[in-house]
Amino acid sequence: MAETDQARPLAPVRIHPRSDDEEKALKTKNRRRKVKLCGCITAILLLLLVIVIVILVFTVFKVKDPKVTTNEIHLTNFGLNLVQLPTPQVKINMTMVVNMSIKNSNRASFKLGNSTTSVYYRGISVADAEIPPGLVIKARKTSGLNVTVDVMADRLASSPDLVRDVLQGEMIMNTYSVIPGRVKILFIKKHVEVKMNCTMTLNISTRGIQDMNCRRKVKL
Ligand SMILES: *[C@@H]1O[C@H](CO)[C@@H](O)[C@H](O)[C@H]1NC(C)=O
Ligand SMILES: *[C@@H]1O[C@H](CO)[C@@H](O)[C@H](O)[C@H]1NC(C)=O
Ligand SMILES: *[C@@H]1O[C@H](CO)[C@@H](O)[C@H](O)[C@H]1NC(C)=O
Ligand SMILES: *[C@@H]1O[C@H](CO)[C@@H](O)[C@H](O)[C@H]1NC(C)=O
Ligand SMILES: *[C@@H]1O[C@H](CO)[C@@H](O)[C@H](O)[C@H]1NC(C)=O
Ligand SMILES: *[C@@H]1O[C@H](CO)[C@@H](O)[C@H](O)[C@H]1NC(C)=O
């Protein structure tokens, strides 16, 4: 009968202490494994950090433009002096109040810089008003802003169309507001500028503003 492998007696297991060299090799291997593990964890942490930064950039740190709305423009003072003879002449005094609201949808406050509102009549600048800087609109809040503009009679009178427009009962005018400001999110400052151009008709008989139409331009 042929001898099977199983039948062969097992070779005695040699137990002997590890040599120094073997121990060193094992330690190095362990260290390498540790270094690899550390590298992996660092890479994962870095990746997480990058993801968090990207998310923040597109959410919290994303600067949104403030929504400026012109609610109403009304006249608080209107004086008209029409002289027909010898040549027709018109003198108009008026004070305009531009009622605006500014909605700040950022998660940080919006601080207004030097803002201006100018009034134009047929392309001629007839009044300017400056809004003192420093108004701060808190995060996700809306603030009202009234701008009072005194229209100067002499500048209006320099227009050759004034007499005809007054006699016809309406004046088409424009208000043009430039509202700069900045949004500061932690260490990031972002400059924003809103320009608002409103065209309206001043009804001479009612002394009211009608057909107001505003256009907004934003520079982020
Ligand atoms: C314009 O206003 C001034 C001061 O309020 C006044 O003295 C003047 O008479 C007014 N002129 C007209 C045309 O209303
Ligand atoms: C506003 O204008 C004044 C004078 O023109 C200037 O000194 C000041 O720095 C300006 N402020 C801002 C916030 O731009
Ligand atoms: C703006 O004017 C309106 C009406 O005149 C007034 O009710 C409101 O309180 C004013 N808002 C500000 C911020 O001055
Ligand atoms: C004018 O602005 C104020 C806020 O400043 C607001 O309460 C009021 O309703 C506004 N008036 C009009 C007619 O929109
Ligand atoms: C001024 O307002 C009155 C009353 O609302 C209106 O009858 C008239 O047509 C208006 N005038 C103009 C030039 O729109
Ligand atoms: C405002 O809009 C009117 C009408 O669209 C235009 O004629 C005028 O030039 C504009 N004003 C400014 C300062 O852009």
From TrEMBL:
It is found in: Membrane. The chain crosses the membrane at residues 37-61. Residues 17-26 have a biased composition (Basic and acidic residues). InterPro entries: LEA_2, NDR1-like. Keywords: Membrane, Transmembrane, Transmembrane helix. Residues 1-27 are annotated as: Disordered. Its main location: membrane. GO terms for cellular component: membrane. The keyword Metal-binding does not apply. GO terms for biological process: defense response to other organism. Residues 100-199 form the Late embryogenesis abundant protein LEA-2 subgroup domain. The keyword Transmembrane helix applies. Gene3D superfamilies: 2.60.40.1820. It is a single-pass membrane protein. It holds the Pfam family LEA_2. This is Late embryogenesis abundant protein LEA-2 subgroup domain-containing protein.
